[in-house]
Amino acid sequence: MTVTDFEIIDMRLEQLSEYAALYVSVFNSEPWNDKWTDETAGERLKLMINTPAFIGKALYCGSELMGFILGQKERSFDGMHFQIVEFCVKAAEQKKGYGKALLKALENELTDIGVVSIYLLTSKGERTEGWYRHNGFYTAEGMILMKNNTFME
Predict the structure, then answer these.
(1) What is the pTM of this model?
(2) CATH code for 7-152?
């Protein structure tokens, strides 16, 4: 089912509590099962929104937030790139075209400002990785994610 009656707007700091509540409801559920609180999610999103290179889009049906996508521009030797840092759609509203509409709105803005590529990190699996593949993303050859927790010892 596809819903066509919606509005996509630029994300605003004034709506932070609304974004945080959606973030918590989505990422504390399957397949992520995180342990976000409204406070920690709000802090994370506020840091991102306040980044000078921030771009974010929110999708509303009437006054109800259905999802958002956000990230930041990054300069590279070959042009401007964009990292999608967070992307979520209300669980009960997934598979209705909202995610695709958000991604397309972001892609249109990035095209207008000359961004040459979009990248992201996501969980493995069909629900996450598969969705991105279906929407034109691929696994970057020669790149891996590395992590270090030993500095805390």
Answers:
(1) 0.93
(2) 3.40.630.30
Residue 61 φ then ψ, to 5°: -110, 110
Per-residue pLDDT tens digits for 126-147 = 888 899 999 999 999 988 889 8
Residue 47 to residue 41: CA distance in whole angstroms:
10
Pairing of strands 79-89, 115-120: parallel
Unique residue bearing structure tokens 């956000």: 70
Residue keyed to tokens 């397309």: 104
34: confidence class by pLDDT, cuts 50, 70, 90 = very high
Whether 106 contacts 8, CB under 8 Å: no
Q: What is the DSSP letter of 110?
A: H
Considering the chain, what is the average pLDDT of its residues?
94
| Torsion over CA: 21, 98, 115, 133 (sign) | positive
CB 69 within 8 A of CB 84: yes
Helical (H) or strand (E) element with 134: helix 131-134
Specify the pLDDT at position 1. Answer: 46
Q: How far is the C-alpha of 61 from the C-alpha of 137, rounded, in Å?
A: 27
